[in-house]
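Can't paste images in this forum, so I'm doing it all in text. The chain is below; anyone willing to post the predicted structure tokens underneath?
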Amino acid sequence: MIGKLSGRLDYRATDHVLIDVGGVGYMVYCSDRTMATLPGPGEAVSLFTELLVREDLLQLFGFTTLVEKEWHRLLMSVQGIGAKASMAILSTLGADGVSRAVTLGDWNAIKAAKGVGPKTAQKVVLELKDKAPNVMAMGGTLAAAQGSVPAAPAGDDVLEPVVMPSASAQAEALSALVNLGYSHGDAAGAIAQAAGDGAAETPALIRGALKLLAPRE
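Text version of the structure:
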């Protein structure tokens, strides 16, 4: 299994790149969002990879983060979602967007990806909803390990652990806001921001989201 490649980017196409690793060229397919982050030809590049093996095909897919790679793997586990559809979903939403859509049961966001119908989008949400918190937690763990989360201060002032809301709490808050007349997209975005601000229970999520959605004078 090829899990990561580091080398020189030889050329870029619309949906893939060629990476030279020690004189061997690897063709790696990427989402639109990943392609947008990659450097130009001749520059150093490093990607996490997932190898798709079929009887008549070997294909490498590249990701800038392990969270994006994990979502690709999970999306591919859903019947009706192949590599092309997975890349389309990640191109449309990004890893964070997929996490949010699946957690909140927002299958309309999944359906926005090219080639993904409503039934398949609903199946993605249904089958992966329980797995979303683990993927999101993986992102937090990696951020801490890589030093992007502030270290606890010295002495007795230790940072309190962040409590993330459950998928059910976010889904209940989303349903309540939609019933109040807010659009699905606006409500989902406000809930995600409220969760990031520390709200964990359904009432707190609703209050925080309502404050964010309130008209500004």
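The mean pLDDT is 81. The CA atoms of residues 18 and 210 lie 47 Å apart.
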